[in-house]
Design a protein that fits this description.
Strand content: 25-35%
Structural class: alpha/beta
CATH architecture of one domain: 3-Layer(aba) Sandwich
Oligomer: single chain
Largest sheet: 6 strands, mixed
Number of helices: 12
CATH class of one domain: Alpha Beta
Order of helices and strands: HHHEHEHEEHEEEHHEHEHEEEHEEHE
CATH topology of one domain: D-Maltodextrin-Binding Protein, domain 2
Number of strands: 15
Distance between the termini: 34 Å
Helix content: 25-40%
Shape: globular
């Protein structure tokens, strides 16, 4: 693996992460074969002692590691994420749930909502907003159509990687990525005279990594995991212009969670208000009256109708919140969940 340029201190973190991913992927493949063919408990400790390892202790350690994984995976959650494998949404899903679960990619927000609506999966991860680009309109539109529950949030730092199988950066003729990724890495591209070569816009950074892996003299702006999955060398890490670039994701479920008293909650909702002067101010006054702290107020227009996406400190079952819900029947509650951050 080739590392050049800046941020070399991240080199070993990336190497170890890639090795860990390979180990876990192989163990999971083994688990899947055992599960499909009902072969659990057919490979005992004696089997591992016969393996061609340096010593008996290593064989027993391997046996214990695989047993631990298989026992934990007998009751896996099925988790959906938006986009292909290697997407930032997959990173968010792994950050939230850990690796010892079953993850499945879904190609659109509407399909993802439909799968959870029909209870074909336990949870789903969807992007709701980015610190640079604002709210994800497709996600908000889906909330207006489906009745699902937001039961959590995940905040992910977005770091872009420049990856290629071309060892000499001056020989790169084409770069693949999403249009937004190009925009977010403009300083890097100009610094290395890459702003004037061919830029090919694709639907995802994972697709970009795949194209760079099969086309000579090309590169991709993508995530570390997308580069790894497509066997690309990471030439530069964290090439984004703004190091504070973050994306916030919602955790969706068909089932709601019970309120716990030792958790600080955040509640999100949508509301359509009359298109008359003062309607928003009048609506917000009730939150002041009930001493509810508002985090976020953003407008969202769909099909000519103006909705407001609002978040506040508290739970939907709090007494003062129930007063508001009783008065405004047109509030579309998205969910109450543990607060991870006030804003991004």
């Amino acid at each position: 693996m080739i590392y050049k340029g800046e941020n070399l201190n991240k080199k070993y973190n990336t190497i170890i992460q890639n090795i860990d991913n390979q180990i876990l992927n192989l163990i999971y493949k083994r688990y899947s074969i055992l599960k499909e063919n009902e072969l659990f408990n057919k490979f005992d400790e004696e089997y591992y002692k016969k393996l061609n390892l340096d010593n008996k202790e290593k064989s027993i350690e391997l046996f214990n590691l695989i047993n631990l994984f298989e026992n934990k995976n007998k009751e896996q959650n099925k988790i959906l994420y938006l986009g292909p494998a290697g997407s930032y949404t997959q990173d968010a899903a792994i950050k939230k749930f850990g690796l010892l679960n079953s993850f499945f990619s879904v190609n659109s927000i509407s399909n993802l909502f439909e799968e959870i609506e029909q209870e074909n999966a336990d949870y789903a991860i969807i992007p709701i907003e980015n610190s640079l680009n604002g709210l994800v309109n497709d996600t908000l539109n889906a909330f207006l159509k489906y009745d699902l529950n937001v039961i959590g949030e995940v905040i992910l730092d977005i770091h872009h990687t420049f990856a290629s199988n071309c060892e000499d950066i001056s020989k790169i003729k084409t770069i693949y990525s999403k249009d937004i990724a190009f925009d977010q890495c403009s300083i890097f591209l100009e610094k290395y005279n890459l702003h004037n070569i061919e830029h090919v816009y694709v639907e995802s950074t994972t697709k970009a990594a795949n194209l760079a892996s099969i086309n000579p003299n090309s590169a991709a702006i993508c995530s570390d995991i997308a580069a790894f999955n497509n066997h690309l060398n990471i030439m530069f890490s964290s090439i984004e212009d703004n190091p504070s670039n973050k994306t916030r994701f919602f955790v969706l479920s068909k089932k709601d969670l019970e309120k716990k008293h030792d958790i600080e909650y955040k509640t999100s909702f949508l509301i359509e208000l009359p298109n008359i002067s003062g309607s928003l101010i009048d609506f917000l006054q009730i939150f002041k009256k009930e001493n509810i702290n508002l985090y976020k107020i953003k407008s969202h227009i769909t099909k000519g109708i103006s909705n407001f996406f609002i978040e506040f400190n508290g739970h939907k079952n709090d007494k003062n919140v129930k007063k508001i819900l009783k008065k405004y029947k047109n509030i579309k509650l998205l969910g109450s969940y543990k607060k991870e951050v006030e804003d991004i």
